[in-house]
């Protein structure tokens, strides 16, 4: 059944059938034309003459016709399908591009409707990825203005009874940011943007730099260390930066007052974030990632969601997030990229 | 310090103005680009807060036009969108800093103070970070009004840290700012200068303001921001 699906095999089968019917018809025609009875083929004295006739009038014409036809068919099929295999290779080797279309100019006329509908499908995927990202951006926009008003209204109240509410508003702000990021990653998974070469050390330094004042205000120290060469990776600056920041925020929550959060880069394409908390076991990390559950490691500020989003970011970059309970580290590993 | 807030959401603009007024800024609000043009024509401002989406035009477009016309005032862009491209467009267009909504009044005030401390800002020959002040023309630093005795190198180091207060100043930047090519910099010259400065500050009572971010640089805490 499977063989019948190949156009090449079906044509060869057809040619063999034509050859078989042709052989039988020609043998019959030649024998009746020359008045040779079938029994002559079994008679040793007459067999030579009959064989010569059959050779001249059956075998040679068949070989002369079938052989070139077979070769021509193989050649036609191969050249006709070459543009299709080329397009397939193009799709396979350039999977990370938006706006990709297959060039239909070289395609055989029979394949054009199919190629055209594939192109339409690619275009629809692009549009849907874009719409998803736009929608998330619009929602975030719509949510941020009321949040800004809420935060400033709370600021108007004298005294400290606004403080717990302020903390809630800033938790909501973080949630909006994380959800927006998640929507961007999902849109990217449907139809990825072209990744850029990134220096992980610089990204780590920038993340530490942007969070340092907050970390110090929360009574913890932050430090950065390098333990060897870090090769460039390919990815999306904002997503990976957000992943590193999520780990730092998580580590700050896990570390007691006066403790230090350390970000270590290398050796190899890895970033480790070390805290001074209790350490997170493999099972707990898996649980946090799987169900956004909060483990003991996290305080009630949506840490599970942060780690889960970081996990998604890492998967989108052919990397993974690991934990070392003994070293109290969460590790972003890009080495398989 | 007079600030112009350009924001089409009136409620948000008024609340922002109120929050900043409580933090000793003088604020005016403009609800459209046209009103902003009018306000800029009639008063001198020390900084602008600009929302990107305006009813009569795009904020990035507006600031580009004003910058081309010679507007030199520092601009803080405030927006509800957070993509990198928009940030880059805003900064290319002539904004000096970029904040994503919602931003708390304290953080907004700290960002504006940071903008005003940048070299070239028209206002304030005196830099202020918490109770620390620095007179940029006399090169004198004070803590709660009391003069701090500093060497010239410590003075430049403090000025650099105060201009960037609330942000990490990288070691390489300090090396560049403090030492010329002819100076031989020992590996721990910056550490030594920082610890001398820290000691001077602590002698005056300014404790726990100067923080070390190991492996990266130093941070002078802008306490009012926290």
From TrEMBL, chain A:
PROSITE patterns named among the record's database cross-references: HIS_KIN
SUPFAM superfamilies tied to this protein: ATPase domain of HSP90 chaperone/DNA topoisomerase II/histidine kinase, Homodimeric domain of signal transducing histidine kinase
Annotated Gene Ontology cellular component terms: plasma membrane
EC numbers for this chain: 2.7.13.3
Molecular-function annotations in GO: phosphorelay sensor kinase activity
Gene3D superfamilies with a match to the protein in the record: 1.10.287.130, Histidine kinase-like ATPase, C-terminal domain
Catalysed transformations (reactions): ATP + protein L-histidine = ADP + protein N-phospho-L-histidine
Transmembrane segments: 12-31, 58-77
SMART domains: HATPase_c, HisKA
Keywords: Kinase, Membrane, Phosphoprotein, Plasmid, Transferase, Transmembrane, Transmembrane helix, Two-component regulatory system
Subcellular localization(s) per the UniProt record: Membrane
Top class in the EC scheme: transferase
Domain of life of the native organism: Bacteria
Protein's membrane topology: Multi-pass membrane protein
Protein name, UniProt field: histidine kinase
Species this protein is from: Novosphingobium resinovorum
Lineage: Bacteria, Pseudomonadati, Pseudomonadota, Alphaproteobacteria, Sphingomonadales
Pfam families noted in UniProt: HATPase_c, HisKA
Domain (Histidine kinase) ranges: 138-337
